[in-house]
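This section describes the prediction task in plain terms. A model, or a person checking by hand, is given the sequence of a single protein chain and must write out its three-dimensional structure as a string of tokens. No templates, partner chains or ligands are provided. The sample shown here is typical of the held-out split.
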Amino acid sequence: MAREPKKPNEYIVHLKLEGGQEVITKFTTIEEVKTWYASQFKAKAGEDDLMPIPVRAELNEILLVRPKRVIAIHVEPIYSSSVEMFS
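The expected answer:
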């Protein structure tokens, strides 16, 4: 009997900015990450205008970032089973 692969419970996206700062935001599915990246971030990547980044959706908190100043994006899958193990 084959085991079903584990699925992440959420995805944490780390945006590395010029100057060493890091912004962290969360998404519930990889499709949300891909949609956000393709439709909002990638389309404006060369621009110097401010773009809203969702920081905490449940609080409607956003951060305004200049896409041109983002030097790296790291997408980290989070599994609740691994978090519970260390609690």
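For orientation: Residues 30-41 form the longest helix (12 residues).
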